Amino acid sequence: MTSGTTGISGRIVENVFLYIAVISVSLLILITFLMIYFTIRYHRKKHPQPVQISGSTWLEITWTVIPTFLVVTMFYYGYVSFHTLKSPPKNAMKVKVIASQWSWLFEYENGFKAPDLRVPVGKPVELLLTSRDVIHSFYLPAFKIKQDAVPGMESRLWFQPTSTGTYDVLCAEYCGLQHSYMLSKVTVLPEADFDKWFQVARKEREAEAAKEPAGIRLFQEKGCKACHTVDGTLLVGPTLKGLFGKTATVITEGKEITVTADEAYLRKSLIEPGADVVKGFPPIMPSQKDISTEAEIEEMIKYIKELK
After folding, report:
1. How far apart, in whole angstroms, are the C-alpha atoms of residue 22 and residue 78?
2. What does the pLDDT look like over 142-191, one tens digit per residue?
3. Torsions phi, psi of 83, nearest 5?
4. What does the DSSP assignment read for 98-131?
5. Confidence (pTM)
6. Distance CA 223, CA 226 (A)
């Protein structure tokens, strides 16, 4: 990962913080100097007999007006910068960001979907964020931007990279047991390289999809791989390897029962994951009822059946 300020948004945020920091440090130095000065100037040894000092109207006006002016300028500078960060340029490239437990999915305007994001250097990118389950927070530290992804609504965020490289994407909102696994990357490419990749990416993905079962693609796009494996190892959820036809102990309405993982069970687990929870695993699987079509559910069931 490349560190440092890498985009216009990062510079805007840094400038606001720098402005506030300069004022804060200047006041710290001034106040510290005055404290030391008055401690020495009016020490008891120099003034054994205290003298009443009358107030100064102009002094009181000065130390009221100047701090007020500084606070107002900090507010104004922050407000203008915030408004800029929330107003993407009209020529920005739009990318839809779909958050789910526990993965990110990026969808481009040409319909191409990927688990990581690629963008051209120097071009503004507008992110349209939403969530399939709980509240997530898209956080791109290198660009100093962060925005919540909330179920049922679409939030917006934009940035403009100024240098090529690969940068981390994190989730800054605790979203469940695998929160720390919710990682991705933003790769900034030279414009010519990005254009070449963007033109062929969808065609290459369609060619790959024709060779592999649709279930493999859906397993990644729906975030299933964050909790389930296909090699027999365990994560937050049970492995899908050899699951079809196997018996399992589940918790149904608070009681332990034994079920067979047939097509009906798999379908119910995808649509109503909290109905029959495999014993020993937390009931945290999101439902596919409103986020997957009937055809997609059929493909996922078909894929699970083939995992021997």
Report:
1. 14
2. 888 899 999 888 998 888 888 889 999 999 989 887 788 888 999 999 98
3. -60, -40
4. EEETTEEEEEETTS-EESSEEEETTS-EEEEEEE
5. 0.64
6. 6
Q: Which residues are paired to 157 by β-bridges?
A: 127
Measured distance CA(7)–CA(258) in Å, rounded = 55
Residues 6+ apart with CB under 8 A from 80: none
Other CB atoms within 10 Å distance of the CB of residue 160:
20
Indicate the residue type of 220.
Answer: Q
- Among residues 251, 230, 249, the alpha carbon closest in space to that of 305 is found at 230
Q: What is the DSSP string of 266-290?
A: HHHHHH-TTTSEETTS-S-PPP-TT
**Each residue's pLDDT tens digit, 120-148:** 998 899 999 999 888 999 999 888 889 99
**CA 36/CA 205 separation, integer angstroms:** 70
Q: How many CA atoms lie within 13 A of 222 on its CB side?
A: 23
